[in-house]
Amino acid sequence: MFDLTKVLLGPASVELGRNLAECLGGEAVPVETKSFPDGESYVRITGDIAGEKVAVVQSTYPPQDRHLVQLLQLLDTARDLNASELIAVVPYLAYSRQDKRFRPGEAVSVRTIVKLIEATGAGSLVTVDVHTDKILDLFRIKAHNLSAMAAIGEYFSKLKLLKPYVFAPDEGALERAKTLAGYLGADYSFFQKQRDRETGMIRTKGRDFEIKDRDAIVVDDIISTGSTIANAASILREEGARDIYVACTHPLLLGGAKEKIIAAGAKEVIGTDCVASDVSRISVASVIAEFLRKTL
Amino acid sequence: MFDLTKVLLGPASVELGRNLAECLGGEAVPVETKSFPDGESYVRITGDIAGEKVAVVQSTYPPQDRHLVQLLQLLDTARDLNASELIAVVPYLAYSRQDKRFRPGEAVSVRTIVKLIEATGAGSLVTVDVHTDKILDLFRIKAHNLSAMAAIGEYFSKLKLLKPYVFAPDEGALERAKTLAGYLGADYSFFQKQRDRETGMIRTKGRDFEIKDRDAIVVDDIISTGSTIANAASILREEGARDIYVACTHPLLLGGAKEKIIAAGAKEVIGTDCVASDVSRISVASVIAEFLRKTL
């Protein structure tokens, strides 16, 4: 029986949390938040959650450490206030790219993050398009990775795209492009990363495809500096694509990444509210709500 | 038997860690540290610590969340590298002023911090002049609070002070002033906080003391904005004190606090390396080393 009744609005994900509460028909519980003059975060849960099953919605995009500490404060406080069960909804999981030890003595930081979330009382975790599924195995609590592609697909299905073609910026991201293409009834392909023998630089090369006078969507899980994506956009422009869209689940968009991608020929950069940004116009609330309804 | 052989140099406390290793005759283990472009911390322990008893030295002064996450990464990694025992040396313990719930639903954040340090494998904790001793009771592991007054006393005993008089900026800090006065064979007193009946402002008033042509030391555990201390310094100047020194364990010195205190009449503001700052010329390494020698 579905009995989630309260959705805690973590300061990094207030809008997403509100959307989720609405999708679920549950009550949104605001969190009063401030920073002390010395920089410490203060959080206060403003509703009664004793005996309730509570989703704590707090993504951990940059500044990661601040958002992470707020998440841990909220989980620990919610448990202290006698919530009956805590579901940590952390759409962007910080440190998930530090998942291997390449050199002796390196921190496998995502393992530490997993321990911290468990130590503060989460009974399960929900994340979205995490860097690699293997991270889920690190959890002793139940951990679920959802795909944002249904939400991204819904967004693009409303645009009148011309014979759309979906691209992954590299082969590793092909499954995601295939999924999105499935929602749109579109073709899909990927770009290949190649190392230039003379300069040692990584370049992205398009494979054989016919994109002339068709709309293109380049989709990835995360856009950081945006270099690979910008390269793909510029190849698509050279090949005669009509409109080029760039979409991602986690728009980190560091240091002018959006401007770089637009300058390379993209018409629009769009992301989801897993990461709050000025391009986060797609909400994953419905994806998370559907999952919670099914499993709780 | 004293068998601590390795001292891990956390990025927030490299100099203090080096001093501590030297005082103990142990080996300093450097930590390679960097920030990724997205802001995540990377840490790498560069020495072999398997089977060793290790002190992880990492203070958590501002930016607190960053320093805290680095501490947790280091503890978890050190345990993963099979250190036999971990002593967390955290001279400034972040969030220790959030130790009570004043309004319903507030996070008692220091409790969360305690859980996180324990969850990542610390076997014991050493801190210095913590906000309140009661915090130690929150730990299930052994937690020790040391006083920096011996180190501060040693510093002032080398200056040729004229009939020194030690002041606490408020009554709650009197014990600390008394301790420092004991090291210097000095008199001691405190200032009283009074609420102005008309304006509601808190003002600091001196009690009866004769400070004319004597040197004064105002000592506190922590200086944040420095307003109370500046007020005390300005009263001492009005009362005809010769040189006015301001000393503290944790020089946070937010937003021009040092300049404010100097402008109020202090000759010098001095702090310890519990918090790295440009006034941190007193090291607590000898205090920590002496404690570790006695108890390990």
Can you walk me through this structure?
2 copies of one chain form a homodimer. Chain A is an alpha/beta fold. Chain A is built from 8 helices and 13 strands. Chain A has helices at residues 14-24, 64-80, 109-119, 149-157, 174-184, 227-238, 257-263, 285-295; strands at 6-9, 27-35, 41-45, 53-57, 85-89, 124-128, 142-146, 165-168, 187-195, 202-206, 216-223, 244-251, 268-271. The longest helix of chain A is centred in the N-terminal third of the chain and has 17 residues, at 64-80. The radius of gyration of chain A is 20 Å and the shape is globular. At the A-B interface, β3, α2 and α3 of A face β3, α2 and α3 of B.
Summarize the structure.
The structure is a homodimer of 296-residue chains. Chain A is α/β, with parallel strands linked by helices.
